[in-house]
Amino acid sequence: xxxxxxxxxxxxxxxADREQVADHACEAGVQAIVIPAxxxxxxxxxxDLAAKVAGGAYALGIHPLYVxxxxxxxxxxxxxxxxxxxxxxxxxxxxxxxxxFFVPEIASGEPRERQERFYAAQLxxxxxxxxxxxxxxxxxxxxxxxxxxxxxxxxxxxxxFNGSAQQAQAFIDHGFALGLGGAMTYERALQIRRHAVDVGxxxxxxxxxxxxxxxxxLHPPERRNRPGELVRIAQVLAQLRGITPxxxxxxxxxxxxxxxxxxPAAILADSE
Length: 272
Description:
Distance between the termini: 19 Å
Radius of gyration: 17 Å
Number of helices: 10
Oligomer: single chain
Mean pLDDT: 96
Helix content: 40-55%
Strand content: 15-25%
Largest sheet: 8 strands, parallel
Low-confidence stretches: none
Strand order of the largest sheet: 1-2-3-4-5-6-7-8
């Protein structure tokens, strides 16, 4: 079994064939898909979609790239949505949250301060409700870690991780697994590939970030990433580590269920 721990299946890129994309992933061996929210407007969208997808699960949060258009009251709405979702077995985490210092317009000044304020507020909710987080990590590792240290061991997944070995270990020490996806499939992605080999297998999970971060084998006109690509992504990780795809599947599935403790219930929800 493979688990796509980060897939934006609700994105407009899937409007024409969302059901077929999900069915193809399931047939290929992807038996669970975690769909993170990005803003208040799509909280009910990811919840409802997760209920329609085999092995569907969801997270609720406000993405750092969407903070500039969020209202302060959206944090109150998020807290209430989390409270209401606690009884839903498909609800597994708070996310996608984090910090993005790659985009110049929000990397400094008031926009950066607002990003940090929203991130800190959402971390506090994770601590309050004892939920893991799906972290957006882009040129912001050290500041993310600074905030994490204030809340103890929250845990979760450092999505699309591309930091240093020392930063990787710091996230692991805070109870996080590192998310590996399409970027790992490029030979020039040397640092990510080093993590794929050097980090203990027990600290790695797989993801697509579909429709984004397409793997190396997707060429125009089909550059849209899909959750079904996780099968070949897992094969790349197996090749890099010199182990079998079955070993990768077994380990990364166990890891995902460890760092997202509510995930087994989401998977079992389909059989009830």
